[in-house]
Amino acid sequence: MASGLLGVLLLASGPAQAHDHQVPETVLKKGAKELQAGTRVFESSWDRRLGDDECENESVIYRTRFPEADSVAAGAKLRVRVSKAQRPDSFGIAAYRALDEEGEPSGEARLLSRTLERVIVDGNTVAWDAVFSVKNPGRDYYLVSEGHWQDTESCGGDQFAYWSFHVKTRSAAS
């Protein structure tokens, strides 16, 4: 229960920028259109400095869940926007075909090919887009993204989080 409440508090805190010591928010986009906000799943671990020689780690375990599917054309170019100015050290997107009875991803994940693109506003980096495609028509894509950042201004540890999204592809002609 405490982790669920903590997750709610973090969600209400707004987008994270570099070195603000909060898990960044994410959104799935197609072009300029926002399809769905990222749902934190699995776990996250984030550090912040409390004093000169003291650090605090906030590790949270989340209930796995996926939003209702947004319909996109097969071959659609999508992007996960990560609201953090610091470039992720790594960012992956895994696709699952189905969920089990408990709503957990089922079967083997397929790691999707992606590129990272800087999002610049008024000359400043404000976010990063992980750009990828969903190719097969008539298929559910249960997506889990995973980002890692090295905390460079505080405690120096690896910080990470996972987010889920869900799209269903239709034939490119429809």
Question: What this model shows, in words?
Answer:
The structure is a single chain. This protein is mainly beta and 174 residues long. The protein has one domain. It has 1 helix and 14 strands. Strands 3, 4, 5, 7, 10, 13 and 14 form a 7-stranded mixed β-sheet that branches. The protein has a 5-stranded antiparallel β-sheet with strand order 2-1-6-12-11, with no helix packed on it. It has a two-stranded antiparallel ribbon with strand order 8-9. Strand 11 and strand 12 form a beta hairpin. The radius of gyration is 17 Å and the shape is globular. The protein starts with a helix and ends with a strand. 27% of the residues are buried. Keywords: Signal.
Q: What percentage of residues falls in helices of 4 or more residues?
A: under 10%
Derived structural class: mainly beta
The proportion of residues in beta strands is: over 45%
Number of helices: 1
Give the oligomeric state of the chains in this entry, treating copies of one chain as homo and distinct chains as hetero: single chain
Mean pLDDT: 87
Cα-to-Cα separation, first versus last residue? 43 Å
Tally the beta strands: 14
- Kindly give the count of domains: 1
Signal peptide: 1-18
Keywords: Signal
Question: Which keywords apply here?
Answer:
174 residues, 14 strands, seven-stranded mixed beta sheet, five-stranded antiparallel beta sheet
SSE inventory with pairings:
Elements: H1 2-11, E1 26-30, E2 33-37, E3 39-51, E4 54-61, E5 70-73, E6 76-82, E7 90-96, E8 98-99, E9 105-106, E10 110-111, E11 115-121, E12 124-134, E13 140-150, E14 158-170
Parallel strand pairs: 5-14
Antiparallel strand pairs: 1-2, 1-6, 3-4, 3-14, 6-12, 7-10, 7-13, 8-9, 11-12, 13-14
